[in-house]
């Protein structure tokens, strides 16, 4: 896999600094694969009952958080593809709450969600392998802000790490 250096300030809005500041290094593929293993180990260790619970009233269950992670990764991957291909139209933001509500992740077996997460990650790596390197720095507009495909791709593991830390500390 090509080297996928982390984005520089200015390639993304400050909102995403929360996620990007959690990451170190530039071995993207290793990080993506490692996170699959971390997630599988966590859900295996905690068990099915744990996946059905939230840590507080009004918060998502662990399965809903996992579904949210998958949805977000698909959206970020789609945005990255669009901008890498030269899309000039602005892409809308998304409200995570209706996505989780309408997905009904609580009705999906946790094994299916874990398989879906892995499939999304493998599709992501496959896409990155064929993206021309110079297209990673093209600038598009999403959620009203300029952003590069490179930044979108790095937000994915940063967003995961953010939620993984919440899994470990609050669930």
From TrEMBL:
Name the InterPro entries for this protein. Answer: DinB-like, DinB/YfiT-like
Which superkingdom is the protein from? Bacteria
A Pfam family assignment = DinB_2
Q: Which residues form the DinB-like domain?
A: 35-165
The name on file for this protein is DinB family protein
The lineage, from the top, is: Bacteria, Pseudomonadati, Bacteroidota, Cytophagia, Cytophagales
């Amino acid at each position: 896999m090509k080297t996928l250096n982390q984005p520089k300030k200015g390639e993304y809005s400050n909102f995403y600094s929360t996620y990007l500041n959690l990451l170190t290094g530039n071995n993207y593929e290793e990080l993506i694969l490692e996170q699959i293993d971390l997630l599988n180990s966590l859900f295996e260790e905690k068990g099915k009952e744990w996946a059905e619970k939230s840590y507080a009233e009004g918060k998502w269950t662990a399965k809903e958080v996992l579904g949210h992670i998958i949805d977000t990764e698909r959206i970020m991957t789609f945005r990255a593809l669009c901008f890498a291909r030269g899309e000039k139209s602005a892409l809308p933001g998304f409200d995570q709450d209706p996505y989780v509500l309408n997905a009904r992740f609580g009705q999906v077996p946790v094994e299916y969600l874990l398989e879906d997460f892995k499939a999304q990650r493998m599709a992501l790596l496959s896409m990155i392998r064929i993206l021309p390197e110079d297209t990673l720095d093209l600038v598009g507009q999403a959620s009203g802000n300029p952003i590069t495909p490179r930044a979108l791709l790095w937000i994915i593991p940063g967003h995961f790490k953010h939620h993984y830390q919440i899994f470990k500390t609050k669930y």
